Amino acid sequence: MLSTISHLNPAVTAAAELFTDGRLTDAVLQNVATMRGLPLFIETGAVPTITERAEAAQIELGRASADHRIVTALYAAARRRLGMANQRPAADRRAAQTAAMGALNKARAALRKADARLAAASAALAALAS
User: Fold this and answer.
1) 8 A C-beta contact, residue 43 and residue 77
2) What integer pLDDT is reported at residue 52 of this predicted model?
3) pTM of the model
4) What is the model's pLDDT at position 92?
5) In the chain, helix, strand, coil percent, each to 5?
6) What is the C-alpha separation between 115 and 108, in angstroms, rounded?
7) Which H helix or E strand runs over 48?
8) Low-confidence residues in the chain, pLDDT < 70
């Protein structure tokens, strides 16, 4: 007899049948999933309310905004590093420029990701507001 909650992972249910007398509960399924290292997908049927979704979107927007500020500062530092590398003596200028460009390219890629995350978080919050 299965629990009242719909279990979407048949591997967990099958493994639990081996450990029980046929009566499965959510606690037994969770314990078996933990022992076997299997993911336990439980569909509770609960749908988040609009308020809960708005709060989650607001939190994600705050995190994306903070991440964007940090990555923007790192990008500015990488640009300054390249500027300093360009002013190095001729003997070691090339190596410094190469290292600075590598750091700048990584910072630029991180900034693009942060821009996309911030835009997606803003759009999600705007969609919930409308």
Assistant:
1) no
2) 85
3) 0.62
4) 93
5) 75, 5, 20
6) 10
7) none
8) 1-46
Give phi and psi for 68, each to the nearest 5: -65, -40
Dig out the tokens for 66 from the structure.
């903070």
**Over the stretch 51-77, which tens digit does the pLDDT of each residue have?**
888 898 999 999 999 999 999 999 999
Q: Which of 48, 11, 19, 10 is nearest to 27 (CA)?
A: 19
* Residue 42, SS3 per DSSP: strand
Which phi-psi region, left, alpha or beta, contains residue 45 (left: φ > 0; alpha: ψ -120 to 50)?
Answer: left
Q: Which helix (H) or strand (E) holds 130?
A: none
What's the token pair of residue 104?
Answer: 């700048």
First vs last Cα of the chain: how many Å apart? 44
Looking at residue 5, what is its pLDDT?
47
Written as six digits, the tokens of 51 are 């308020």
Q: What are phi and psi of 81, to 5 degrees?
A: -60, -40
